[in-house]
Amino acid sequence: MAIEVRIPTILRTYTDGEKAVSGEGGTLKELFDDLESRHAGIQDRLVDGGELRRFVNVYLNDEDVRFLDGISTKLSDGDSVTILPAVAGGAGTHARAGTR
């Protein structure tokens, strides 16, 4: 079963610079286990305590897996998984200007 996994720039050091890699697994967890076997260290950046890290977004065919079954989400041959780091920001100088 071949599944395309799109890798964000920040994690490409684990995939030798590849933007996309192929993986296998019947669930997202199994896919991450498979990726770890070929790209050591990547799983720790995605999973913590058996769940997706808070600041990592994973999409299965454009659906956020947090609204499916999370790391237990079932996969099928030909699926596409996209990993995206969450973007967070704080208040800019404009927001703080009124508090002085």
TrEMBL record:
<dbReference type="InterPro" id="IPR012675">
    <property type="entry name" value="Beta-grasp_dom_sf"/>
</dbReference>
<dbReference type="InterPro" id="IPR052045">
    <property type="entry name" value="Sulfur_Carrier/Prot_Modifier"/>
</dbReference>
<dbReference type="Pfam" id="PF02597">
    <property type="entry name" value="ThiS"/>
</dbReference>
<dbReference type="InterPro" id="IPR016155">
    <property type="entry name" value="Mopterin_synth/thiamin_S_b"/>
</dbReference>
<dbReference type="InterPro" id="IPR003749">
    <property type="entry name" value="ThiS/MoaD-like"/>
</dbReference>
<protein>
    <submittedName>
        <fullName>Thiamine biosynthesis protein ThiS</fullName>
    </submittedName>
</protein>
